[in-house]
Amino acid sequence: MLMRTDPFQEFDRIAQRLLGASGTWSRPTAMPMDAYREGDEYVIAFDLPGVDPDAIDVDVERNMLTVKAERRPQAKAEGVQMELSERPLGVFSRQVMLADTLDVENIKGDYDAGVLTLRIPIAERAKPRKIAISAAGDGSRKELGG
Question: Where is the SHSP domain (predicted)?
Fold first, then answer.
């Protein structure tokens, strides 16, 4: 149901993680995701812990799904000295090419516990269906297909 668009994206993600680089608008960090089919829906879940829901942008143009989010530093009280800062900040983005068999007009999104879950229905034209075949000469119809 999805198609990978950049074979080097995983290498970039690993390098950014090793170098501790934070994402920028011109070079965002990739966000981890899971994708699976559940009944008549395709589900994609993105990990975005600590991201304000207002800082998440989901866009679909043709069959290209783009998710962008920004995790900003939290305001610290005066006199606070940071001892350790390992949580990544900055801009996160992921683009996923969706198959033509998905109904991109009816995507539903939910954000809970730091996970953005998108549910994309399987298009009616992609679902299996029975085809009615009429027998030659007698006008009766027989259902074929699964």
Answer: 24-136
- 53-95 pLDDT, tens digit per residue, is 999 999 999 899 999 999 888 777 888 887 877 777 888 899 9
CA distances 64 to 95, 107, 116, Å, are 7, 13, 17
Q: Encode 5-23 in three state secondary structure.
A: CCCCHHHHHHHHHHHCCCE
* 41 SS3 class: strand
Q: Which residues contact residue 146 at a Cβ distance below 8 angstroms, ignoring those fewer than 6 apart? A: 128, 130
pLDDT tier at 130 (50, 70, 90 boundaries)?
A: confident
Q: Would you say 108 and 41 are in contact if contact means Cβ atoms under 8 Å apart?
A: no
Q: What is the pTM of this model?
A: 0.68
Instruction: State the average pLDDT for the chain.
Output: 81
> What are the tokens at 135?
């027998």
The SS3 assignment for 126 reads helix
Q: Which residues contact 1 (CB under 8 A, 6 or more apart)?
A: 35, 37, 42, 98, 99, 101, 102
